[in-house]
Amino acid sequence: MKRILIACGSGVATSTVANQKISSYLDENGYEGQYKIDQCQVSEVVEKSGDYDFCVATTVVSGEPKCPVLPGLPILTGMGLDKLFADISEEMKK
C-alpha cells in the first residue's frame, strides 16, 4: 500500500482537485486499492513526509522532506500532466 501526501497552500481546495485527478489516474491504470491519499497544507509537508512514500505539491515545498516531492502544478494547468502522471507511475512501482 503506497501512502501519498498531496499538499497545497491551505490543504483543502486545490489538494482536493489534485486528489480527485490522481485517484482517477491511478484507478484507471490498475492501482485501485493499492494506495491511500492524505491531504495537508504545504507548510506541513516536511513534518509529515516521513510517513509517506511520496508527495505531490501544487506549490513550492521549503525545507527538506523525507520523501520525494513531485511538482503538482500540471494538475492545475494541464501543461506537463503526462510527465507528472509518468512520475507518479514510477513512484508507485518502487
Structural features, described:
With 94 residues, the protein is of the alpha/beta class. It has a single domain (2-93), classed as 3-Layer(aba) Sandwich (Rossmann fold). It has four helices and four strands. A four-stranded parallel sheet has the order 2-1-3-4, with helices on one face.
Quick gist of this model?
With 94 residues, this protein is of the alpha/beta class. It has helices at residues 13-28, 45-48, 73-77, 81-93, and strands at residues 2-8, 35-41, 54-57, 69-71. The chain has four helices and four strands, in the order βαβαββαα.
SSE order and pairing:
Layout: E1 2-8, H1 13-28, E2 35-41, H2 45-48, E3 54-57, E4 69-71, H3 73-77, H4 81-93
Parallel strand pairs: 1-2, 1-3, 3-4
Weakly predicted, low-confidence segments = none
CATH superfamily: Response regulator
- Radius of gyration over alpha carbons? 12 Å
H and E order: EHEHEEHH
Spatial order of the strands forming the largest sheet: 2-1-3-4
Instruction: Output mean pLDDT.
Output: 97
Q: Biggest sheet, open or closed, and with what strands and sense?
A: 4 strands, parallel
How many β-strand stretches?
A: 4
How many distinct domains? 1
Which CATH architecture would you pick? 3-Layer(aba) Sandwich
Strand content: 15-25%
**Tally of helical segments:** 4
Shape: globular
Query: Would you state the CATH class?
Result: Alpha Beta
CATH topology: Rossmann fold
Structural class, from secondary structure content? alpha/beta
Q: How many angstroms separate the termini?
A: 11 Å
Question: How much helical structure, as a percent, in the residues?
Answer: 40-55%
